Amino acid sequence: MNYTFVPSPEHKTLVEAAIKLWNEDDVRGLVSRFYFPLILSKRMSEWQKIENKVVEKVSKLPLAKPLKEKLLCFIRPVGLQILTWVDFHDNRFSFVTMLPDEFFWTPQGTIDKKKTAEALIKDESLDITKRYKLACIYCLKSDVDGLWNNIPEDQKKSFYSEKDPGDVRQQGLVILWTYDIKKEVTKLDNMIAKRWRKCTPYQYAFEYAALGGNKAATEHFLQKLTPKEREESLVRTAGYVAKKRCGSVSNRTDFPKEHYTDVLCFLLSQMNEEQQAKVFRSYPYEVLKCFLDWPWQSFFMEMAKRMWTFLPEESYDCLLRVITSKAKVVDGYKDYNYQKLFGEFWQQSPISYKRYVINECTDGSLLSNLFEVEDRENITLIVKDATLTEKEELIFSDIGEDICTRLIFRGNWNLVRFFVGECISSKEKIIELREEFKERNSRYYSKEEFAEKEDTWNKFFQLLDDLIQKDDKKRSMEEENSSPAKRLHSLTSEQLSTSKEIFKG
């Protein structure tokens, strides 16, 4: 499998259009004044206001509606590239104090961080120590050498300690490059053994860079490894990268989590099939989850085909939940058609995986998420693979009744009717469901509380009564069609003539 994402001409065009909108002066002004609240939810809420302005610009473009909808799928991910870049370089390290005059972009729609760093380093208005750090982190060797020579001697002390490298309070790659320039890399051995594990300085740099989500440095230091070091580090590091992408713990100096899939794909591209299989066997869930990051989603199903042998059923269930949670993003801000991906993932999965998920449906949030986005198609796929007993157990479970209740109070009667119709096929069970909700209401509501909601509940009970009457009519018609007189009446003249001849005989 080729782990290089080659975007289609349409993808490239949409990326270019999204970048152009984010580069307009009024948007850049808002981004340059954006502050970073400590609480992530508040940060995203504030960023949403800027994003909404760009979305508004899309609505005013003279484009056909289908093309606008496709472009909207690129607005959020392109904008988040800018947000995460500024967060990492400015807020975490104070590398820069303003937006670059120009971001360099890849055809995939991600910021080319190495080229952007190269441009920043040439900006002499920036502090030289900040430019030196940038050069070290992105492994721009010629810039590292030149900048080091021009740093004032008193400022070099913050990058170097003759006594103990462990006393230097800089990022690991900055320390390594500094000692490399001074031809004193061997002095790092004790520090590396304490901070990492016993390994060579270049092994440390390679693993440190990969686990920090730094693709540029990962590529650079992989080329520095001996065949033995490469054999020791490559597979192990790839697995840890996938695991760290899916974990909640990160270091302050780590790149944003969305960068880790780029690193993982690079590492996989450097392996043979046997090495790749080792990674997949140990981290099937983590690897697949990485391919839900933009813009790698188009690789997800191809990766899934390679993963069935290794993927536990419970991990399959978890991945479905991740996909549905991504599909819950407000319409117009999605970065991919996750509902379509869910359907493909379900349909191509082994039957044992489907059985596991169906058995878990009454205990989890999967169906709740699908109902949140009104995804009838995928709900039908799941229910279609369930037995009649399992469908009934589902709608009578706490999860099923909670889904019904939420739909009822939103006034989404079409979905209520759809859910009941998919799970119940007999008049007797509909009556049982009606009585179950009446008894449930008596447990959960006081008379006063129920009185406030009585009209809504009466609409629900009327809907169930209508379904009961519909079932009565259906049964009546079936009985009428099955009566001897009806069967005789339905015979054609030719059949009737033949029957008479038989009776005469």
UniProtKB/TrEMBL annotation:
Highest taxon, organism lineage: Eukaryota
Region (Disordered): 472-505
Species assigned in the record: Trichonephila clavata
Official protein name in the record: ANK_REP_REGION domain-containing protein
Biased composition (Polar residues): 490-505
